[in-house]
Sequence to fold (147 residues):
Amino acid sequence: MDYEHTKALIIADEGLKQFLYNDLTGKRIYSEKGKMTCGIGRNVEDKGFSLDEIGLMFDNDIQHCVDSLHARLPFFDQLKDEYQYVLVNMAFNMGIDGLMAFHQFLHFMSVGAFISAAADLRTTQVYKQLPSRYERLCVLLEKGEWQ
Fold:
């Protein structure tokens, strides 16, 4: 799988923010009392993250998705890059456990019925919540190549 292409497309879907934000509104989050911290006392509310730090976290998150897909979907390695990307994107968006709840979709993926997988995906709540993102994934499933 082309990691750089995958990362670029996910960044386009997710956006890039250097401070904590609400994923529904995109607005920056502030604590009412104290400061939001993580790691070893890092004040992420005021300092945020550098682009290098964001890149490192993003690389780790993508690798976690790929490793989880390898472990949980025996057919993952047999898929061509475009179809692997669909699964990585979905796992990144909803978590591996969220993706694993799409039983019919995953069955279609496992048997190479990608048009049926796209049709099934269009009936889901996540498709309704993020129609632009998931329609791009459906078109990729149907056409089997980058557009």
User: Anything to note?
Assistant: The chain has one domain: 3-16+50-143. The domain at 3-16+50-143 is CATH 1.10.530.40 (Lysozyme). The chain has a mean pLDDT of 94.
